[in-house]
Amino acid sequence: MPDRAPPHVVIVDDKLEMAEMLSDGLAEHGYSAFAVATGKQALARVESEPVDALVTDLRMPGMDGIELLTAARRAVPDLPVLVMTAYGGMDTAIESIRRGAYHYLTKPFKLDELVVYLGRALDESRVRREARTLRKSLRDGAAKAGIVARSSAMRAALDVIVRVASSDVPVLLTGPTGSGKGMFARYLHAESGRARGPFVTVNCAALPEPLLESELFGHAKGAFTGATTRRSGLFAEAEGGTMFLDEIGEMAPALQAKLLDVLERRVVRPVGSTKETPIDVRIVTATHRDLRRRVAEGLFREDLLYRLDVVPVNVPPLRDRRDDLPELAAELLAKARARHPTSRVERLSRECLLAMLEYPWPGNVRELAHAVERLVLLGRSSEAHFADAALPHVATRDLPSVHFSGPVLPMRELQQRYARWALAELGGNKTRAAERLGIDVKTLGKYLAEDGGD
To answer: Which intervals hold domain Response regulatory (predicted)?
Structure first.
């Protein structure tokens, strides 16, 4: 057993000598085991002291094994329970598995069999505890970064971020405008080993090509008109940290080639210079575009996409994370009230929150933030009403319009193409794609595997 405190196991059998024999045997294998003769005694120990596992006989006078199992797991929901039964009690043993027992042992059994299954049960219990701790840490860390993640879609995205944070691989954040890709990039940086280094953001759509090149790579003195001094560039400023290239899909092809060279050789060369400088920068990119479509249209380099798309993370639109909306709205309200302390608005009315849950939010979190700001500024009473948000009228129940063009395709090929498109749109997450398509993962796999022929 490891050097940490030995697992504490309670063993109960109405034949006390049997329980004591098992207890002594487990002690030889590094366990701290305690034998009792009744279900009530076992339950008292479970309720009063830390117990890592329970081993119980099924047929006992008074409180039997099934009753003890139910009561013990009510007191400690994740407690691993192993049951012992004679051959004639198989139906009861199977019932115990239905009620949450980890495994059953048919008497007579060897001590080694108990040791094996007890070890497995404790390992699985430890993994579940660690997973819960990780999820709590994930939620706490995300909350500190201003990210609300109660919905399964957001938790899935954050889980990927946490798993790749410690590495230096490029991460491509996809999702619609206003969904929070910038916050994800900052969270990734904060959780990484580069957290103490700089976090430099560049919006590739905000600057014309010549200026963006100079900003990113720097320039030598006299490289162009107005370049009166040497400039190191933002890649150099991001040394030891993270460079976040937002709206990477808008970058001009010539700059894409230069960025590809940076990714492959880890050096930058300022505009107008012949000298190359090594860099140590993690690159994170984001886009609301379908980059594969832009590759097909000749607007984005395929080799660069492969370099950037090492780990794709899809940031879901607000309409796909309704579970997050109440908490998100409450946080935005608190921030807006802090900016406008004279506002009469103190809270959102129930009508307002229900309307928010129904609204499609085409502008995503950014639109919600602006709507809450208007509520705080325009609200006439302590409770904000949705009408004060002055949002455009959007048909919340209508299906989005779909346009068809091109040749008529066989249904099988159409299913396959649409399934592949949906999978790409959702970042390759088959579970989410199946949910959105209204099918199970197995059926999605069949669609993807079909060749489109008859």
So the answer is: 8-122
Residues 6+ apart with CB under 8 A from 99: 66, 69, 70, 73
Residue from 15, 45, 41 nearest 32 by CA = 45
Please enumerate, as own/partner, the contacts of 261-264 that have beta carbons within 8 Å and a separation of 24 or more.
262/235, 263/170, 263/304, 263/307, 263/308, 264/307
Same domain, 274 and 346: no
Same domain for 169 and 93? Answer: no
Instruction: Give the Cα separation of 320 and 151 in Å (integer).
Output: 8
Backbone angles phi, psi at 288, to 5 degrees: -100, 0
Of 258, 289, 314, the one marking the end of a domain is 314
SS3 360: coil
Q: Which letter does DSSP use for residue 396 in this model?
A: S
The number of residues making up the chain comes to 454
- Is there a domain that residue 234 lies in? yes
CB contact burial 210-242 (16+ within 10 A = b; e otherwise): eebbbbbbbbbeebeeebeeebebbbbebbebb
Among the three residues 314, 329, 350, which one is the final residue of a domain in this structure? Answer: 314
pLDDT tens for the chain, 454 residues: list them.
445 689 999 999 999 999 999 999 999 999 999 999 999 999 999 999 999 999 999 889 989 989 999 999 889 888 999 999 876 667 777 888 888 889 888 888 999 999 999 999 999 888 887 766 655 555 555 655 678 888 888 888 988 998 898 899 999 999 999 999 999 999 999 889 999 999 999 999 988 888 888 889 887 776 666 666 777 889 999 999 999 999 999 999 999 999 999 999 999 888 877 788 899 999 999 999 999 999 999 999 999 999 999 999 999 999 999 999 999 999 999 999 999 999 999 999 999 999 999 899 999 999 999 999 999 999 889 999 988 888 876 544 444 556 566 677 788 788 888 888 888 777 777 887 887 887 878 888 888 876 444 3
Whether 336 and 372 have beta carbons less than 8 Å apart is answered as yes
Domain span holding position 51: 8-128
Return the number of other C-beta atoms located less than 10 Å from residue 98's C-beta.
7
Q: How many domains does the chain have?
A: 4
273 plus 308 within the same structural domain:
yes
Q: Check which CATH number belongs to the domain holding 437 and give it.
A: 1.10.10
Please report, for the domain that includes residue 114, its CATH number.
3.40.50.2300
Residue 370 one-letter amino acid: H
